[in-house]
Design goal:
3-stranded antiparallel sheet, Arc Repressor Mutant, subunit A, Rossmann fold, 13 helices, alpha/beta
């Protein structure tokens, strides 16, 4: 008489085995490294690592089953990001240690080049949108979150910071310049910087109409070109137009003077994909924890946050991050 031995289950060990299996492939480790401060779709990752979509989908499935990556749906697209380690759960310490070792890896030069190409494709799509839609941009933006919907909250947070006399401000991507009169009243000098000539012309018209003599307009790429550091850097509904938001915050943090502030107004994460076509959004909002994590990685300290609920289903987050007077990390600031 044949008797089957009962199958012994090792649920906890299975979880650890899945984590070890996921980390046992060089390509998957490099995918985790590429996702350290970014999120990509499967087609973008297939392009970055020069493999077929089906092959990349398999690797992402293994990483997801091990809890190493999380997914986020934006319309019809799914974006992958690194999952945060839960150190108090089974495998959490191993998860954290694996990511810590992964972050010491240097991505191959060809992979870094293709990541830059993907970022370039995103940035080109954004610039093309603003070149085509500048005249209608504000009307489209108002469908989601126009300045009147968050102005009071942004100003309340700004005024609570109590900047010294003579302080300067820098607004990246001022749109039609609607926030510039508020900055001009509160700061000695204001710079408005945009990489779109069409959008900058709208801001110029606003400055002329309002007689804003202390506002200087500059056509420049905030991540490439040179411009002065400021005491307060303002990003109003702009970060979701950056190809790589986490890397952008690292760069922009260097343009804030010690003791200064970063003020961000952004949409919370949402799934209304029509915003991509209507407003040229590269990202459908951001998780609150992501902004805090990216700002911390940039050497900034999280401050006060305000949240504004909108009738159309969107929610706005108004966030303050402070730059310490002195850095404890060598080379953190310039």
């Amino acid at each position: 008489m044949n008797m089957r031995a009962p199958q012994i289950r090792f649920d906890a060990a299975d979880e650890l085995a899945a984590l070890c299996k996921a980390g046992g492939d060089p390509l998957r480790l490099n995918v985790l490294r590429a996702l350290s401060n970014d999120s990509f779709g499967v087609l973008e990752l297939a392009q970055i690592f020069a493999i077929g979509q089906s092959g990349m989908s398999h690797h992402l499935k293994v990483l997801a089953q091990a809890g190493l990556v999380a997914t986020r749906r934006e319309g019809n697209a799914i974006f992958y990001r690194r999952a945060l380690a839960q150190v108090d759960l089974l495998g959490g310490a191993l998860h954290a240690a694996l990511l810590g070792e992964v972050d010491e890896l240097r991505l191959p030069e060809d992979v870094q080049r293709r990541i830059a190409e993907v970022h370039g494709q995103r940035a080109a799509a954004s610039q093309d949108f603003f070149a085509r839609m500048a005249a209608n941009f504000q009307a489209q933006q108002d469908l989601i979150a126009g300045l009147p919907q968050y102005r009071d909250s942004a100003l309340a947070l700004l005024d609570s910071l109590d900047f010294a006399t003579g302080a300067t401000a820098l607004e990246i991507g001022p749109g039609d310049g609607g926030f510039l009169p508020e900055l001009a009243r509160r700061f000695d000098q204001v710079i408005a910087l945009d990489n779109s000539p069409a959008m900058l012309e709208l801001a110029r018209l606003r400055c002329d109409q309002e007689g804003l003599a202390n506002v200087a307009l500059q056509l420049a790429d905030a991540l490439v070109d040179d411009y002065p550091a400021s005491d307060c850097l303002v990003l109003n509904m702009v970060l979701h137009h950056f190809a790589a938001p986490a890397e952008a915050l690292k760069h922009l943090a260097q343009r804030i003077r010690p003791g200064g502030s970063l003020l961000i107004t952004e949409l919370c994460s949402h799934n209304q994909s029509w915003a991509r076509e209507a407003c040229g959004d590269l990202w459908l909002g951001f998780e609150q924890d992501d902004l805090a994590r990216w700002a911390t990685a940039a050497g900034l300290l999280p401050g006060e946050s305000l949240y504004v609920g909108l009738r159309n289903g969107f929610q706005i987050q108004v966030r303050h991050f402070a730059k310490p007077e002195q850095s404890n990390r060598q080379g953190a600031y310039s």
